[in-house]
Amino acid sequence: MLQKAAPARPDWVMRAQPIEGIERIEAWFQGKAYAMHRHDTYAIGRTLAGVQSFNYRRSRRDSLPGNTIVLHPDEAHDGQAGTGEGFRYRMIYVEPALFQDVLGGRTLPFLEGGVTTNPRIAAATETLLQRVGHTLEPLEQNDALAELAHALAAAAGMPRARGKGDYLAARRARDYLHANFTRVVTLEEVEIATGRDRWSLSHDFRTFYGTSPYRYFTMRRLDAVRRMLLSGISLASAAADAGFADQSHMTRHFLKTFGLTPGRWLQIVGNVPRD
What we know:
Elements: E1 12-15, E2 22-29, E3 32-37, E4 42-49, E5 52-56, E6 59-63, E7 68-71, E8 77-81, E9 87-94, H1 96-103, E10 115-116, H2 119-125, H3 138-155, H4 167-179, H5 187-194, H6 198-209, H7 213-230, H8 235-241, H9 247-258, H10 262-269
Antiparallel strand pairs: 1-2, 2-9, 3-8, 4-7, 4-9, 5-6, 5-8, 7-10
């Protein structure tokens, strides 16, 4: 007796609310996904499962799980599953003007292949290619955009522009972030507090403090979490009081920074022998 074939999974697309010139989606398709089309934005994505195939610049490209897709603005492409299993991916669409603000008038970076395994580009897209349900803080998105623009420029062989920077603006930014880390800080606030535009300020901060504004901001939150945990405050309360969206948000940053979960860190600290 012949068995009936399993019904195909329905195609779906989830979208995040567009913010500051960036659209974020996650999607699943089985078979044909898109006919030939083009965007006036960069399309940068990550294949999560299956084989993501598309025609781009006169040849077929196949992206495997973990690969990063980088499609230049106004380049025609389509999309389909490379196997019968279908494919899942996340994608961001970035207005070229945002990258141009970072690069300061240099040529927009172009990667010929459309698919890359470049580790710096992969790392630079991690923040922006989180699940669409995750809300990015303004400073977080700004830092990620700046790093992605520089990663694309480096992969395209473009020399990085150097500037002296504005130390006083960087110090004002540091002081402002330090005083306000327990809440969401907007980019406009920091620009007003420092008298410097967001992209120049990002460069200044890295030049004089060796890290990005959002990374500094997050570290101050984590410092507060550790102090609160040692005083007996619960994980959930510490996360909220330090300005994190929730406990899992705090735990992800804690693990990424210290290599331990907050609970494991607290357990170890509590095991220090007494004289």
